[in-house]
TrEMBL record:
Residues annotated as domain HTH luxR-type: 850-915
Species of the source: Streptomyces lividans TK24
Matching CDD domains: LuxR_C_like
Gene3D superfamilies, sorted: P-loop containing nucleotide triphosphate hydrolases, Tetratricopeptide repeat domain, Winged helix-like DNA-binding domain superfamily/Winged helix DNA-binding domain
InterPro entries xref list: AAA_16, P-loop_NTPase, Sig_transdc_resp-reg_C-effctor, TPR-like_helical_dom_sf, Tscrpt_reg_LuxR_C, WH-like_DNA-bd_sf
Designated name of the protein: Transcriptional regulator
Key words of the record: ATP-binding, Nucleotide-binding
PROSITE patterns: HTH_LUXR_2
Length: 921
């Protein structure tokens, strides 16, 4: 066998980069590297060399992923962490529970994948406490989906923990996108010639040599293995045959040819090892005994240098495993899987046993199918929706009864959809169509097809399909029907003006028809469903009592997971009903619950609502910290939530370049996805921006776009106040009156103090004399009572401007000074400048100190500093930003140096108005 150093020829740059990664870990830093390249190009040889060199200096954990375990949730991660679990007790309780449930070590509700990711990061950090840690994952393309996502999560958060993570795979997996990446190419011509000379001692026909080098494309394994498949005559005379097979298949074919002369028992033993991915020698010995394979089979396989049996069973190259398995007959594969099932513990490893039994079974078998179904339940419990889908799909294939087969196909499709594979879910539903189904099962198929189709396309027909599904469930499963109705209403609401104009009304009428006004339910989800339907069809007055009941229910009851998911409807209602106190309470409640339960899919929406509350309360710094947390979650989860918060913050702060750029991005995204809310967000934010900067004509242009859509409420109706202000300043009286009339239509029926304050402020701008003064003072009083400082400042600014126009400069200065104090203190720089300019016009000069960047902090440093300023501990900051406490400490040290401070209490003044150098996320 050619020495292992041979594939490393010409790899000096790659070796240096890998060793530099380990060196950084030894120095207390951390990082990850994805190494990709075709099979046989030398990835494993590089990793062998790296781990051998690093073993004397760092702790090393290495795992080889297996294709046969791709359907077992967290199988790869469990192998990697098997020596680290002793540190699990030092993790925060939710993280410890999550990873122990994921590994099947305790029973509890399915863990959040993000808590598992945080737990992995914590385990790695604990393992690196005493000595730097090198984690190596070979053949990472075969990782199960749950393990791959957890590793990607942790890899993106590594920074200052003394950890090096290397993942080798054939093709870059999108789940690892954004990580540092090394592409391993074939050897150069001279190195390839030398490796071929070592592989084929003696004479080699030049034409054969040139052809082999050309076909191998510098692939070291091909250069070593392809010549072994050639006869002496071919090597000497050049009578080799070309092939159109891909290189990987050519290599596998060559390996099969080399192993063909082995005795049948030795080949069966290799197949047994190839089918058993854990590498447990004891399991291999027991299974070989079941098959009647003796020591001579082991000797022959080892003599052929195909595999090695030590503390673990391993092949000399991963392609040997796949070549052996693919070349075997179906009958032999079933034999070895049956043997492995016989010796795998039903108590300690029931899922692998069930999978081996299924692989050994040809005909339908209810007992085997039932075991797979139980494995699917366990996979769900561990948070492995993808694994559950795979178990259920195979269970359906082996189910004798057509009725139960349909049942399992539907369950498999639901699991696939929950795992994000909606296209696979639709494929399985197509198979279920030809089976005998009950009426309820038919309705479930329609519902799941509508949900999966909407997830894939987000098209305008989604709401109608969901509505049809909800109607079909009436009388069969009323609870599920209502859950489907609320999904249909959400789909219609998201579309807004870009969807079917009558869709929201149609869905709302269907909901009202399916629910009774006499319903005495206090269930939060039922109340918000009917309340939102009333809001869409009959307006605020009719919906107000039900929506108020819904808000109380959401705040007072312990919500189930679905109620938490749809709490945003209650928060939206609080906005539509001009109820700032209700919105504050609901936003705080939703964020608290989402954090406590680890529901990270809900947390970005909850934080968006909290951010709106913070902005309304004038806490723009707190709102920016919420944006930082949203961005951290989006980076980890791929959540597509547009940057609404960043856009509105930039608008309030008068940052024109950033706000205009983000508005363009949000508007384009909304048009592409058919989401009308995005257009409202862009128009509203631009109107705020331009009013603050005194660019009233541009504010009119942005605000005017929302006039036809105020029935959508929410941001559309809030834009009316901006339009009144802009049109009043440009002298477009008719437009201002039109906007005021529409604003009155969505505020006066509600009658809350906030709504009446907004209406008074708008009307005051179009009235004169005592009427205007009375309205301004009423609005200011109400805003102060509701604790909404932004509107207190803006209303005083408008009142001061009006007093100046009336020739009452002394009174104007009183209002303008107060406005300037509030607006500048809250960071509304554009509006503060307007107040300063108006003061100058009244005869008083006041300079505005625009708050800018005091030091060049990176975005992550700024994120950490903001949360530290709010009083959070390093561990709490790490949990918010999905990084380790070590990384938090590392960033804070750099922040202190850059800002010239020594303690956390100095952060607040030092960070006043500070912005990151690149905070456009």
């Amino acid at each position: 066998m050619v020495p292992d150093i041979a594939p490393l020829r010409g790899r000096h740059v790659e070796l240096a980069e890998l060793e530099a990664l380990v060196s950084r870990a030894r120095g207390g830093r951390a990082g990850a590297l994805v190494v990709s390249g075709e099979a046989g190009v030398g990835k494993t040889a590089l990793l062998d060399h790296l781990t051998a060199r690093a073993a004397a200096h760092v702790r090393t954990e290495r795992v080889v992923a297996s294709q046969s375990e791709m359907e077992l949730a967290y199988a790869g991660l469990q192998q990697l962490c098997r020596h680290m679990m002793g540190s699990a007790a030092r993790l925060p309780a939710p993280q410890q529970e999550a990873i122990e449930v994921a590994f099947g070590l305790r029973s509890a509700a399915a863990p959040s994948p993000f808590l598992v990711g945080l737990a992995l990061l914590g385990l790695l950090t604990e393992a690196a406490e005493e000595q730097a840690l090198l984690c190596v994952v070979d053949d990472a393309q075969w990782l199960d989906q749950a393990s791959a996502r957890a590793l990607a999560f942790a890899a993106r958060r590594l920074d200052a923990e003394g950890i090096a993570l290397v993942l080798a795979m054939r093709q870059p997996d999108p789940v690892f996108a954004g990580l540092p990446h090394m592409i391993l190419e074939g050897l150069g011509h001279e190195d390839a010639c030398e490796l071929l000379r070592l592989a084929v001692p003696g004479g080699l026909d030049l034409r054969v040599r040139d052809q082999l080098i050309a076909e191998a494309r510098g692939n070291p394994l091909a250069l070593r293995e392809l010549p072994r498949a050639l006869s002496p005559a071919q090597i000497a005379g050049g009578f080799t045959l070309t092939s159109s097979l891909p290189l990987e298949s050519r290599i596998e074919q060559s390996l099969v040819v080399q192993l063909a002369p082995l005795p049948a028992p030795a080949r069966l033993l290799l197949l047994l090892a190839a089918a058993e991915p854990t590498g447990d020698p004891g399991l291999l010995w027991r299974a070989s005994a079941v098959l009647g394979l003796g020591p001579e089979a082991f000797d022959a396989a080892k003599d052929a240098e195909a595999f090695v049996v030590g503390t673990r069973v391993g092949f000399r190259h991963p392609l040997v495993r796949s070549a052996v398995y693919r070349a075997a007959s179906p009958g032999d594969r079933r034999r070895v899987h049956a043997a492995l099932a016989d010796v795998t513990s039903a108590e300690h490893d029931p899922d692998r046993r069930a999978w081996h039994r299924a692989s050994a079974t040809l005909q339908p078998d209810e007992e085997v199918a039932a075991d797979l179904e139980k494995s699917a339940v366990r996979a769900r419990t561990r948070g492995g929706a993808a694994a559950a889908g795979a178990f259920l799909e195979r269970a359906a294939e082996l189910t004798p009864s057509p009725f139960h087969r349909g049942q399992r196909l539907i369950a498999a499709a639901e699991a696939k959809h929950d795992a994000g594979a909606s296209d696979a879910a639709l494929r399985l539903l197509g198979s279920a169509r030809v089976l005998p189904l009950t009426a309820l099962q038919e309705a479930l198929v329609v519902r799941l097809r509508a949900r999966a189709g909407y997830a894939l396309r987000r098209d305008r027909g989604g709401a109608q399909h969901l509505l049809d599904a909800a109607r079909g469930l009436e009388g069969l499963d009323p609870v599920l029907a209502r859950d489907t109705y609320i999904e249909a209403l959400a789909a219609a609401t998201y579309g807004g003006r870009l969807g079917d104009a009558e869709q929201v009304t149609a869905v709302a009428h269907a909901i009202l028809g399916a629910t009774s006004a006499a319903d005495e339910t206090d269930r939060a989800r039922d109340l918000i469903l009917r309340g939102q339907a009333l809001l869409a069809t009959e307006g605020q007055t009719a919906a107000l009592p039900t929506l108020r009941r819904a808000q109380r229910a959401f705040l007072e009851q312990a919500p189930d997971s679905l109620e938490l998911h749809w709490m945003w409807f209650a928060s939206r209602a609080a906005q539509d009903l001009w109820d700032p106190a209700g919105l504050r309470a609901l936003a705080d409640r939703q964020v608290e619950l989402a954090r406590a339960e680890g529901v990270v899919t809900v947390l970005p929406i909850a934080l968006s609502l909290l951010m709106l509350v913070q902005m309304t309360d004038g806490d723009l710094d707190g709102a920016e910290a919420s944006c930082d947390e949203i961005d951290a979650i989006k980076e980890v989860t791929g959540n597509p939530l547009p940057p609404y918060g960043r856009l509105l913050l930039a608008a309030y702060r008068g940052q024109a370049d950033q706000a205009e750029r983000l508005a363009e991005r949000v508007r384009a995204d909304g048009l592409a996805r058919g989401e009308g809310h995005a257009l409202s967000a862009a128009n509203f934010s631009e109107a705020v921006l331009y009013n603050g900067l005194g660019r009233f004509a541009e504010a009119v242009a942005s605000g005017r776009r929302e006039l036809p859509y105020t029935r959508e409420l929410n941001l559309a109706m809030r834009t009316l106040l901006e339009l009144v202000e802009a049109a009043a300043h440009t002298g477009e009286r008719a437009l201002a009156e039109q906007a005021l009339e529409q604003l009155a239509g969505v505020t006066r029926p509600v009658g809350t103090s906030y709504a009446l304050a907004v209406l008074a402020m708008a009307e005051a701008q179009l009235r004169a004399g005592d009427d205007a003064e009375r309205l301004f003072l009423d609005a200011i009083k109400r805003f102060e009572h509701e604790r909404i400082p932004i509107w207190v400042g803006r209303c005083r600014l408008l009142y001061g401007e009006a007093l100046n126009r009336q020739g009452r400069p002394a009174e104007a200065r009183e209002q303008l000074r107060a406005a300037h104090r509030v607006l500048s203190a809250r960071g509304l720089n554009g509006f503060a400048q307007r107040a300063a300019d108006e003061l100058r016009a009244s005869g008083e000069t006041l300079r505005v100190h625009t708050r800018g960047s005091a030091a060049r902090l990176t975005e992550q440093e700024l994120n950490v500093a903001r949360l530290a300023r709010e009083g959070l501990t390093n561990r709490e900051i790490g949990a918010r930003l999905f990084i380790s406490a070590h990384t938090v400490e590392y960033h804070l040290r750099k922040v202190f140096v850059k800002l010239g401070i020594k303690r956390r209490t100095e952060l607040k003044p030092a960070l006043a108005g500070l912005t990151a150098t690149a905070s456009s996320a």
